[in-house]
Amino acid sequence: MQMDVENLVADSGIAIIDFAPFLDASNKQDVADRMLASFKDIGFIYLINHGIPPERIAQMFSLSRTFFAQPLEVKMLAPHPPSGTHHRGYSPPGQEKVVQHLYDPDAIAEQRAQAPDVKESFECGRENDQVMPNIWLPEGVLPGFKETCLDFFWLCHEIELNILRALALGLHLPEDYFLKSHTAPDNQLRLLHYPSVPTEALQTEKIARIGQHSDFGSITLLLQDDVGGLEVEDPHVAGVFRPAPPVPGAIAVNAGDFMMRWSNDTIRSTIHRVRAPPGTHADGMTPERYSIPYFCSADFNTVVDCIPGTWDEERPKKYEPISAQEYIMKRLAASY
């Protein structure tokens, strides 16, 4: 099984990077350079020794399973609003359809009409967010849920800042270059549960777990269970997807569309999806899957222009300056 994972990781082309030499400052530039190289090539990395204690990850997954095991009427006590621009609270299976197209309403409608996304989710952010206030279960319904989610949110934020420092160093910028635009933080912690479904229905695309899409913030941190199913598009062959299996002890990190735009397409935001994991199952059912993505965005009041060093006379800017809020709200609205 370990060899299968190693082969799949090698086939995906995603680099496995030890973050410890950056965190302890023993070899920061080498780590930063290798991270940037993978972000430029495929837009993803696997990060080990990232700084999130294994017991905290196990605790968060345990709490996620407990939450999703609650009856629907309990989970709906913290309902996601109908508007896609307020990404907080609980969404039952079928409510959200992840779409890739942003500016073409016909393309959005066409993609939304395809196989439904069979997943449920819970989303939260920082407590003092005036744009998207949190929506929690009533007090006493699931003791400790709010506090554990918030603690994990801030733990992920610490890792985010270190990754942004490394990216800046890889681009030969001051380490705090991105930190100045990530102070709020306007981020989103999402708990995801994919129920067990017939494998044949996933393979024939009668249903979907998450259809092909790219993320739209700065970076995303992804923690997965051991089920698998994440696939990443081959950067050299459009439409060909390769498995990106969970690597023990690692978090997957990928760049989003806003970072790609910010870097004048130097950094790649790669299309990915979640389908049936490799292998067959005797009962014909794909096992349930849990994952925890942490979506990182620049401060909503930040207006960004292309990063210095990513453009010149021979490679002019591809994008006009834009605010993070304007860009992200358009993308959020398209999903609901």
Automatic annotation (TrEMBL):
<protein>
    <submittedName>
        <fullName>Clavaminate synthase-like protein</fullName>
    </submittedName>
</protein>
<dbReference type="InterPro" id="IPR027443">
    <property type="entry name" value="IPNS-like_sf"/>
</dbReference>
<keyword id="KW-0408">Iron</keyword>
<dbReference type="GO" id="GO:0046872">
    <property type="term" value="F:metal ion binding"/>
</dbReference>
<keyword id="KW-0479">Metal-binding</keyword>
<feature type="domain" description="Fe2OG dioxygenase">
    <location>
        <begin position="185"/>
        <end position="298"/>
    </location>
</feature>
<comment type="similarity">
    <text>Belongs to the iron/ascorbate-dependent oxidoreductase family.</text>
</comment>
<dbReference type="Pfam" id="PF14226">
    <property type="entry name" value="DIOX_N"/>
</dbReference>
<keyword id="KW-0560">Oxidoreductase</keyword>
<dbReference type="InterPro" id="IPR026992">
    <property type="entry name" value="DIOX_N"/>
</dbReference>
<dbReference type="Pfam" id="PF03171">
    <property type="entry name" value="2OG-FeII_Oxy"/>
</dbReference>
<dbReference type="InterPro" id="IPR044861">
    <property type="entry name" value="IPNS-like_FE2OG_OXY"/>
</dbReference>
<dbReference type="InterPro" id="IPR005123">
    <property type="entry name" value="Oxoglu/Fe-dep_dioxygenase_dom"/>
</dbReference>
<dbReference type="GO" id="GO:0016491">
    <property type="term" value="F:oxidoreductase activity"/>
</dbReference>
